[in-house]
Specification:
22 strands, single chain, 13 helices, alpha/beta, Rossmann fold, eleven-stranded mixed beta sheet, about 25% strand
Length: about 525
C-alpha cells in the first residue's frame, strides 16, 4: 500500500522534531503538517530542511566526484535516490487538538507518526469572527481558511513590519477595506503617499459602506469639497513634543501657555511680553529660535502685529475642522488624511492634535461610564518610528494606555528595532512580512507574543504578500497570504452584484484648502 502523507517522524526533541520526507513529496519552510493520533491531532510547522543519507559523507563526495569529472555518464547504481539519500524536515509542535479543543502543545507525537497536509476541518479552532487578514498559508500553498484577529486586538495595538516591496501598503489597504464592513470601529489614516483613498485608481472610495472621509490639498474632479482649517488655538505645548526642542524652549512654550492660555501661540509668534514675574527669565535668543521653529512648522509669518497664515493652520477660526474629524471618528467612520504635500513635522502635528483630542474624549467617556457605547478608534501610522521613538508624545501614551480607552495604534515600519523596546512590547499583535535584515528580525522575534526563535529563516524567506501574525489573541502564530487589493475589491463588489468600482455608492469628499 502506498504511503499516504509527506513524512514520518524519526527522532529529535520537543522543539526540534525530525521527520524523513517522502522522496516524491515537496516540503517547504513554514509548512503546516498534521499528525493523527487517536482522538488527538497534533499541528506542527516546518522550520528547517536538511539532507540525510545512509552513506558516509566520503562515499557521497566520491560519487559526486565521479559525476563531476564525467567518469560516469549517470549516477552510480549503488546510490538509490529514494532509499539511501533523502531530505529531513525539522518541525516544532504548535497545538494539540483533543476532541475539538485546542491547547498549546505540551507533548510530542509518537515515534514513526505519519505527517500529512492539513484539511480545513483540522483548523476549526481558529477564530471565526473578527478582522480578516488573509488566507492561511502552508509554505507557499494557500488554504481556503480565513485568518482573523479579534477586534479587541486593534485597541491593544498592531505592528506591521516588513522590508521595502514586501506588501505592507497592500496589506494595510486590505485591512482598512475589511474594517469598513465592521460596525463600531473607526480609523484615522495618516497617508503621506496618498495611496489609500484611490484618487486615480481603485481605493477605499469604492467601498459601498460610504464610511470614508477624505482630506487632501489637491482638489478633486468630482464630489463636494471642504477645506480643512485647524485653529492654532487648538494647539498646546504638548502637541509639539515630537520636535527636537531644548529644555529652555519647552519652558518658554509652557510659560506663554500659562499666561495667555488659548492665545499663547499668537502671543509667542508676535513676541508679546510675559508679565508674570517667574516667567520673565525667558531669554531673547531662546524666544527668537523658538519663534523661528514654530513659524516654519506652521507656515505662519508676522506683519504689522498680525499673523499671516499660509497653510492649514489658521488663527481665530475656532475648532470647526477638528470637530468634523473627531465627530466622524466618534461615528465609526474612517478618515483619510492625504499629507503628501505637507512636511513631515506638519503631518505629525496634525496627527498629534487629533489623537490628543480623541484620547481626551474617550477618557471623559470612561469617567462617565459610557465608553462602551463609543466605537474603537485606530490610528494608522506610516513610518512609525518617527512617531514612536520618543517617550513623551501622545502616541507613546496611547501605546501604553490606549487599550483602557478603546484607542489603538496600527504602526507600519521597515525598522522595528528603531521603536523603543517598551513600546514594541506593548504592540500585542505583530504582522511580520519578509524582513531581510537580521537585526530587524531579532527585534520582532524577541518582542512577539509567541516563541518565534526558530522562525528566523522562515521570516527571511517570506515572499511578497506572505506574512506571519503573532497575537496575544491567537492560540499560535499563523502564516497567511494577503490578496492583491484590486482582487479583494473585485471579490467584494461581485458579492454585491457589482462589476465595476464606479458602480459603488457616491461619496461625499472633503479636503484641504489648496
Amino acid at each position: 500500500m502506498e504511503f499516504e502523507g509527506k513524512a514520518i517522524i524519526v527522532g529529535g526533541e520537543f522543539n526540534s522534531i525530525v521527520a524523513r520526507q517522502k522522496s516524491n513529496k515537496n516540503v517547504q519552510l513554514g509548512e503546516l503538517l498534521i499528525v493523527d493520533q487517536g482522538s488527538k491531532k497534533h499541528v506542527l510547522q516546518v522550520y528547517d530542511l536538511v539532507y540525510g543519507s545512509q552513506m558516509d559523507r566520503q562515499v557521497l563526495e566520491l560519487a559526486a566526484g565521479l559525476q563531476l569529472e564525467s567518469l560516469f555518464d549517470s549516477k552510480p547504481d549503488f546510490i538509490d535516490k529514494s532509499l539511501r539519500n533523502y531530505n529531513l524536515i525539522v518541525l516544532k509542535p504548535l497545538v494539540t487538538i483533543d476532541n475539538g479543543k485546542a491547547t498549546i502543545a505540551k507533548e510530542m507525537p509518537m515515534f514513526f507518526s505519519r505527517l500529512r497536509e492539513p484539511l480545513a476541518s483540522d483548523l476549526d479552532f481558529l477564530p471565526s469572527q473578527g478582522l480578516t487578514l488573509g488566507k492561511l498559508r502552508s509554505g507557499s500553498k494557500v488554504l481556503n481558511v480565513d485568518v482573523k484577529i479579534p477586534l479587541k486586538a486593534l485597541t491593544h495595538h498592531v505592528l506591521i513590519a516588513g522590508s521595502t516591496g514586501k506588501g505592507k501598503s497592500v496589506l494595510m489597504k486590505n485591512l482598512l477595506w475589511n474594517l469598513l464592513s465592521i460596525d463600531n470601529v473607526a480609523a484615522l489614516v495618516i497617508d503621506p503617499h496618498d495611496e489609500y483613498y484611490g484618487r486615480n485608481s481603485v481605493g477605499l472610495k469604492d467601498h459601498a459602506s460610504g464610511k470614508v472621509d477624505y482630506y487632501t490639498q489637491t482638489p478633486l474632479k468630482s464630489g463636494a469639497f471642504q477645506s480643512l482649517k485647524l485653529s492654532i488655538e487648538s494647539l498646546k505645548p504638548e502637541h509639539f513634543n515630537f520636535l527636537d526642542l531644548t529644555q529652555a524652549q519647552v519652558e518658554a512654550m509652557n510659560a506663554y501657555y500659562k499666561e495667555f492660555n488659548q492665545e499663547w501661540l499668537k502671543a509667542l509668534l508676535l513676541e508679546q511680553e510675559l508679565r508674570q514675574v517667574k516667567t520673565r527669565q525667558v531669554q531673547e535668543v531662546t524666544l527668537a529660535v523658538l519663534k523661528r521653529k514654530l513659524s516654519l512648522l506652521l507656515d505662519i509669518q508676522t506683519s504689522n502685529g498680525e499673523l499671516l497664515c499660509n497653510s492649514v493652520f489658521k488663527a481665530d477660526i475656532g475648532r470647526a475642522s477638528l470637530e468634523l474629524i473627531t465627530k466622524s471618528l466618534s461615528n465609526g467612520k474612517t478618515v483619510v488624511l492625504d499629507t503628501s504635500r505637507l512636511s513631515s513635522d506638519q503631518e505629525l502635528l496634525i496627527a498629534s492634535l487629533i489623537a490628543s483630542d480623541m484620547f481626551k474624549k474617550h477618557k471623559f467617556l470612561k469617567e462617565q461610564g459610557i465608553l462602551s457605547k463609543a466605537p474603537s478608534v485606530c490610528f494608522v501610522l506610516e513610518e512609525a518610528p518617527r512617531v514612536l521613538n520618543k517617550e513623551d508624545t501622545i502616541f507613546s501614551t496611547i501605546a501604553r494606555e490606549g487599550r483602557k480607552f478603546k484607542i489603538g495604534l496600527i504602526a507600519i515600519t521597515q525598522t522595528p528595532s528603531s521603536i523603543p523596546r517598551t513600546i514594541l512590547t506593548n504592540m500585542n499583535t505583530k504582522i511580520i512580512l519578509g524582513v531581510s535584515a537580521s537585526n530587524e528580525r531579532s527585534a520582532l522575534i524577541n518582542s512577539s507574543t509567541h516563541d518565534l526563535t526558530r522562525d528566523d529563516k522562515t521570516i527571511a524567506s517570506l515572499d511578497v504578500g506572505e506574512a506571519i501574525v503573532s497575537s496575544a489573541f491567537l492560540p499560535i502564530a499563523l502564516p497567511f497570504k494577503t490578496m492583491l487589493f484590486e482582487d479583494l475589491v473585485k471579490q467584494s463588489l461581485s458579492k454585491q452584484g457589482l462589476t465595476n468600482p464606479k458602480q459603488g455608492v457616491e461619496k461625499v469628499l472633503v479636503g484641504f484648502e489648496s
